[in-house]
Amino acid sequence: MTALTVTLRLVNLQDQRVLIIGGTSGIGLAVARAVTGCGATPVVVSRRQSSVDRALGSLPSGAQGATVDLSDPAAIERLASEIGAVDHVVYTAGEPLEMVPLVGLTPEAINGFYQTRFIGACSAVRVFGPRLPTGGSITLTSGSASEQPEFGALAVSLCGAMNALTTALAVELAPVRVNAVAPGVVRSPLWSNMNDADRDAMFSSTAQGNPLGRIGEVDDVALAYLYCIQQTFSTGAVIKVNGGGVLV
Questions:
Q1: Structure pTM?
Q2: What total number of domains does the chain contain?
Q3: Within a domain: residue 182?
Q4: Using CA atoms, how far apart are residues 29 and 44, in angstroms rounded to an integer?
Q5: Which residues are tagged catalytic?
Q6: H helices within the chain, ranges in order?
Q7: Exposed (0-12), middle (13-18) or buried (19+): which is 129, by Cβ within 10 Å?
Q8: Which of 14, 99, 217, 229 has the fewest CB atoms lying closer than 10 Å?
């Protein structure tokens, strides 16, 4: 019998540049650390220069940073010109989560919720997508809320929209790969609008009901983004990283 040898091939990120929009804290900063460990240069982007400076202070030398106002299309164009060529784009930008009930779903609340998370993502992909090389990738951020209606209409609709956007862009931008990561409850600044007691109670309750018995950490989720960057034959996929929380 002839032995079949299977070789696992991951992309070497040496000398590649990974733009991480929202890369100065939480999951985005964890992604920056992960790609640095694989030889890539992360370019972390935030709205505030102070956030960029703080992130760069925690990353190895060689990491780069920039600021951008995602609500300003001209600012995104300037960012692309200023930072030069990149090989991969990761989008994790988003304000702390606020679960708004139906009575609070005013046009202003909806627009505010979607501005950075969805409109900003579309605007960034519009600018950077056509600039990426063959073999490049875009990784967006969705969430498990698309399968958990208790998180409210805004979060559920946003994650559903991001999932649909991922599949549409995967076709339109091919051969550039477009995927998304859908985290569950993760210990990150996403929950910073909650007081400590409520946040700890939610984390504890979620962990108890999760098949893996804990909530996620940002480094857990960063590995999924790293996979989306390194693999070479998946596009239009939404990678769930929730510890099985949507199964029960």
A1: 0.91
A2: 1
A3: yes
A4: 8
A5: 142
A6: 26-37, 49-58, 73-83, 107-114, 120-128, 153-172, 196-209, 218-230
A7: middle
A8: 14
